[in-house]
């Protein structure tokens, strides 16, 4: 939940900012010829039913099934001025309700320290601007709204400068991406339309016919004091170029005082494309580890089979920061810090994942994703169907089915501060997305 507003800490409130941007989006009549405005958005309705495992924290309500619902409204606007300036604004309102929320609240009321394994949400406590406002927050439901994009871009022949709340992705991983340090998706996320925005400045410069440099700075606040601190911020650069028939990325930066360096490659093996990203992080922390390496490699390919368009990939991921003793993972400060910041979602060290997509009909696609931790073994199986039922309506139906025994990451393991276990719940879901 966002903190109550403090004018000494935050540079702009949500509603005055919305009013200012609205004025910018609605310029005087004599200026309209210099502006172009693009607008769009969507309304997404979600419903799900979960089956909590006996003894897990989600079974705290002692119910056989957990029923949940949610909505997401997103309104997108882009204003362009003479092709040199652009203002982007995305407003969203999100509501969630149901028995899963009740079960979590009931459990954390009894065992507040058990939240060690729960990543942070969309709070703006760390961000430069507080553009999130919780409308209502109850045990069984919550509604909040926020500006997820608020960016001014200056474009020139040499490149562009973008300042404000925006999203940026570095690296070439599919589900695991060691170069993507800034609000990455969870590997189990099947909805990847939009990343959560961060307040940052990004500079993109073209260095020739085959080169491009990106530089960024992400100022952040200490969630304890509310002050902007270098120790909480990030500054990095990435250079992209071609080496023969290969594409290469080289990046380096400082991220929460850690020094991170990485290199990535993209190449082709016949009609298939392969990618390899590797990073090394020097930890600025009083931990036993001085640093760790992370590597992601994948191969994807599309083909025609039985008259159907088919696409698939395989991927493997290794990181030196992780454990197989999950119940004691909370004793690893670097790992827990990354989970709390929302840039790490798993506890293990090695993962394999694969995906198969089949175009069953031009308007109906089937997807199957599998993620496994081979050291347990345990994992998740994610089948889903995506149906474009009308020009502006898409229906998605699927499931998350977890497997693994006791003392496994995707199966179950004991929580250190309670008699319950951490165990993900199998669930089925249906989404309806209306676009405009």
Secondary structure layout:
Layout: H1 14-25, E1 35-51, E2 66-81, E3 85-98, H2 99-110, E4 132-137, E5 141-156, E6 159-166, E7 198-206, E8 212-218, E9 234-243, E10 246-255, E11 258-269, E12 272-282, E13 291-305, E14 308-319, H3 333-341, E15 350-361, E16 364-373, E17 378-390, E18 393-404, E19 413-414, E20 421-422, E21 426-435
Antiparallel strand pairs: 1-2, 1-21, 2-3, 3-5, 4-5, 5-6, 6-7, 7-8, 8-9, 9-10, 10-11, 11-12, 12-13, 13-14, 14-15, 15-16, 16-17, 17-18, 18-21, 19-20
Please trace the helix and strand order, writing H or E for each element: HEEEHEEEEEEEEEEEHEEEEEEE
CATH class: Mainly Beta
What is the level-2 CATH architecture name?
A: Beta Barrel
| Beta-strand residue percentage | over 45%
Separate helix tally: 3
Mean pLDDT: 90
The gyration radius over C-alpha positions equals 23 Å
- Please, how many domains? 1
The largest sheet, given as strand count, sense and whether it forms a barrel, is: 18 strands, antiparallel, barrel
Q: Could you tell me how far the N terminus lies from the C terminus, measured between alpha carbons in angstroms?
A: 30 Å
Shape: globular
Q: And the CATH topology?
A: Porin
How many strand elements?
21
Judged by helices, strands and strand pairing, the structural class is: mainly beta
Low-confidence stretches: 1-9
**Which percent bin holds the helix content?**
under 10%
